[in-house]
Design goal:
This protein is mostly helical and 209 residues long. It has helices spanning 18-21, 39-45, 47-60, 66-87, 109-132, 152-164, 185-192, 195-203, and strands at 8-9, 14-15, 141-146, 168-174, 177-182. The chain is globular and about 55 Å long.
């Protein structure tokens, strides 16, 4: 009597991988997709991000000669174009007609970046104190936090913000759940109070649960 193959059939050398061998669930994700956009529309959508990246390059680069300016502009455009697919993940944050990035609340980044920089500096001092303390009073823990965001870019922002802050590292992201390693109890409690997730929600204009 023939039945379904077990996850591992002894001697057959066959393994069953849930993410590869099992059929996809029906009705989990919407099948309707926006028609592919032309290269010109994609380039227009990435223009604001490209300008921001080029501005960051100007701040960090010590050389402003024509060769390096051209190289920085081309690099910013390429990175912005490669990031465009991530930013238009469904559900979209704007109209799918080439103006995706133009609708983002870029002005809020001017407040979010300094806020994050202050947290990084404060956390750096706290970690330095822990390392220099004779008893090394660390209390590492792994915790899960939940943050509901409408698109991948917001989840990516929170995951990287957590990792950039000394004392916390994002280990994994599964939908709305973030698996985080915290060096101390206080760092973990701060994430559980949703201080940073709420700030990221404000950054992208997310309201409600």
């Amino acid at each position: 009597m023939n039945g379904p193959d077990p996850p591992y059939a002894g001697g057959s050398g066959r393994f069953s991988c849930p993410g590869r061998d099992m059929p996809a669930r029906v009705g989990t994700h919407p099948t309707n997709r926006s028609p592919p956009r032309s290269f010109g529309l994609r380039l227009l959508a990435t223009l604001p991000l490209g300008l921001i990246l080029f501005g960051l390059w100007l701040v960090l680069s010590p050389k402003w000669d024509p060769f390096h300016l051209t190289l920085g502009a081309l690099t910013a455009c390429v990175v912005a174009l490669l990031s465009e697919r991530l930013i238009v993940q469904p559900p979209p944050i704007a109209e799918p007609d080439g103006r995706t990035l133009l609708w983002m609340p870029w002005h809020r980044f001017a407040l979010y970046v300094p806020w994050l920089a202050v947290r990084v500096v404060v956390a750096s001092l706290q970690v330095t104190y822990l390392l220099l303390h004779p008893r090394l009073p660390v209390s590492p823990r792994v915790l899960r936090i939940r943050a509901r965001y409408p698109h991948t870019l917001a989840r990516l922002t929170l995951a990287n913000s957590i990792t950039l802050t000394p004392g916390t590292v994002t280990l994994d992201v599964d939908g709305d759940e973030f698996l985080v390693h915290a060096l101390t109890e206080s760092a973990g409690h701060d994430l559980e109070r949703s201080t940073m997730p709420d700030r990221v929600a404000w950054l992208y204009g997310v309201t409600g649960p």
